[in-house]
């Protein structure tokens, strides 16, 4: 049914589920970061098209990804408190975006998340090579 109504959403959901099943802990963090970055891009598109329904769906996916990232923080890690604060602030900003979206803040968040993702990937590669 979803495939007939919104094929892109059906594909995204099946891709999400397949990657989720095949992922380990580190992969899940990267997957959530990538998904969040992609959805922030979709949020920018939805806002530029004034598509409130798409904006609502994408905001929901963004908040869900941030919640998963918050839950998945290793509380013993050195950066745990900083990540928790960052993810919490990002979630608050997105929830405020339900009323009005600040595209500059969204772009900044997207850039910050790309940096976090790159750092996490580098750390993961370092662990795999050691």
Explain how this protein is built.
By secondary structure, the protein is mostly helical. It has helices spanning about 1-5, 5-20, 25-50, 50-70, 80-95, 105-130. It has 6 helices and no strands. The protein starts with a helix and ends with a helix. Helix 3 runs antiparallel to helix 4 (about 50-70), helix 3 packs antiparallel against helix 6 (about 105-130) and helix 4 (about 50-70) packs antiparallel against helix 5.
List the helices and strands and how they pair.
Layout: H1 2-5, H2 7-21, H3 25-48, H4 52-71, H5 80-96, H6 103-129
Helix pairs in contact: 3-4, 3-6, 4-5
Tell me briefly what this model is.
With 130 residues, the protein is mainly α. The protein has helices at residues 2-5, 7-21, 25-48, 52-71, 80-96, 103-129.
Give the key terms.
82% helix, 130 residues, mainly alpha
Largest sheet: none
Rg on CA atoms, Å? 15 Å
Give the termini separation. Answer: 47 Å
Work out the strand percent.
under 5%
The helix fraction, in percent, is over 70%
Figure out the total of helices: 6
Oligomer designation? single chain
What would you call the shape? globular
């Amino acid at each position: 049914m979803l495939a007939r109504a919104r094929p892109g959403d059906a594909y995204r959901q099946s891709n999400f589920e397949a990657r989720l099943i095949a992922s380990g802990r580190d992969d899940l963090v990267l997957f959530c970061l990538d998904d969040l970055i992609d959805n922030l891009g979709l949020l920018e598109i939805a806002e530029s098209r004034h598509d409130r329904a798409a904006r609502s769906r994408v905001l929901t996916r963004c908040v869900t990804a941030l919640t998963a990232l918050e839950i998945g923080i290793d509380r013993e890690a050195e950066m745990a408190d900083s990540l928790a604060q960052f993810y919490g602030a990002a979630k608050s900003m997105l929830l405020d975006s339900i009323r009005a979206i600040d595209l500059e803040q969204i772009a900044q968040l997207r850039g910050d998340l790309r940096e976090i993702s790159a750092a996490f990937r580098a750390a993961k590669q370092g662990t795999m090579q050691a």
